[in-house]
Write a structure and sequence with these properties.
four-stranded antiparallel sheet; binds zinc ion; six-stranded mixed sheet; Alpha-Beta Plaits; 18% strand; Aminopeptidase; 2 domains; alpha/beta
Length: 389
């Protein structure tokens, strides 16, 4: 595959300036999940200009899009996914500006090989990874089922990291209803909804000792009353519940819900539990595909690929239950960086970031070329996917 590297480098040079400009534009105009109108437009205009068949407002998700290329000669169907949502107050602290553009860069370079070898290429814009991940809706609608592979590469610190697992996650909201009363005059006539929430936190804190080490339960009090002299008649808590495997997560969710039910009983409140965001599945990395990508990173002279614990969650997990998928990482900094921080956002427009981005683009394109040209490899990837199901 090494023979392709020179021509890929020359090809990427044509787009480098534009990619850099788009990256800085998104860095300076960060948009929250499902509000990424400017970013989505930027992608759609650029894809149109470069010969892709573009669907805006894809699946009636206003900031989603699909850019399709090829399909003239039969062959594998490759999906590259873009994210472009930012975080409140810290902007692109997860680097989704450069993340999406890495997939765009790889799509632009892959076109030529789709012309040559056949197959179809899709760049899919997937909004709101940080909150109501659109990949969940898209997965549920079955749009990923047709793909030979789906790939996305996320920015990180210090070196390339392999695609591993991510945690399954459910977002639970506990709504406690009580009755107001004067907190000093006749508190005995009230039912304190905030007690429901406090009991919930205490029960969950007791539960922690009996959970798997890899589990995470973390919450906030999103509503806790209006003023101290009124017994709160409404209080609310939001939690994320995570575990490494979907099955463990579902068991843990039931235990956490029981903490809420007990809290309602002991406080005399009424309780409603709901999902306030979509649930994310665990990431199941296709090892065969992942090894090909890693090999294509290493042939660029990168010696070591690191491995993380796979903590945190992503809606790419849902995609990985639908088709063979990877979610590796490329470096945007030589220094330590904390995810979801202003420093991380700053690093996303650094020279180091563009270096890592180019390496990831070459990794994706070379992997794409192998998918388009090696039937045996495709079969192996598909078999692994079927066996894991
Ligand atoms: Zn993030
Ligand atoms: Zn992210």
């Amino acid at each position: 595959m090494k023979k392709y590297l020179n021509e890929l480098e020359m090809e990427l040079n044509k787009y480098k300036k534009d990619l850099k400009e788009m990256n800085e534009y998104m860095y300076n105009n960060p948009e929250l999940g499902n509000e990424e109108y400017k970013s989505a437009k930027l992608y759609c205009d650029y894809l149109n200009k470069n010969g892709f068949n573009v669907t805006e407002n894809y699946l009636n998700i206003p900031t989603a899009f699909e850019g399709k290329y090829g399909g003239i000669k039969p062959g594998p169907k490759i999906a590259l996914l873009a994210e472009y949502d930012a975080l409140p107050e810290i902007g692109h602290g997860c680097g989704h500006n450069i993340l999406g553009l890495t997939s765009l860069g790889a799509s632009l370079l892959l076109k030529k090989y789709i012309d040559e070898f056949g197959g179809e290429l899709y760049l899919i814009g997937t909004p709101a990874e940080e909150t109501n991940g659109a990949k969940v809706t898209m997965s549920d609608l079955g749009i990923f089922d047709k793909f030979t592979v789906a790939m996305i590469v996320h920015p990180t610190e210090k070196g390339h990291h392999r695609s591993t697992t991510s945690q399954a996650m459910e977002a639970l909201k506990f709504k406690f209803k009580g009755k107001t009363a004067h907190a000093a005059g006749d508190p005995y006539n009230g039912i304190n909804a905030l007690d429901g929430v406090l009991n919930l936190f205490n029960s969950i804190n007791a539960l922690r000792q009996q959970t798997l080490d890899s589990s995470r339960i973390h919450g906030i009090i999103s509503k806790g009353g209006t003023t101290p002299n009124i017994i709160p008649d409404y209080a609310e808590a939001k939690f994320y519940v995570r575990a490494n495997k979907l099955k463990d997560m579902l068991e843990l969710v039931e235990k956490v819900k029981n903490c809420g039910r007990g809290a309602a009983l002991s406080s005399g409140t009424e309780l409603e539990i709901e999902n306030y965001e979509f649930s994310f599945y665990d990431m199941v990395t296709n090892k065969t595909l992942s090894e090909v990508y890693e090999k294509n990173i290493k042939i660029q002279g990168i010696e070591e690929i690191y491995e993380d614990e796979g903590l945190g969650s992503t809606d790419m997990g849902n995609v990985s239950h639908r088709c063979p998928a990877i979610h590796p990482y490329f470096p945007i900094s030589k220094e330590n960086l904390t995810g979801h921080s202003i420093d991380f956002a700053k690093a996303s427009i650094s020279e180091e970031a563009y270096k890592g981005m180019a390496e990831a683009i070459y990794g994706l394109v070379l992997t794409g070329i192998e998918i388009l040209t090696n039937e045996k490899l495709v079969e192996k990837i598909q078999n692994e996917f079927k066996n894991k199901k």
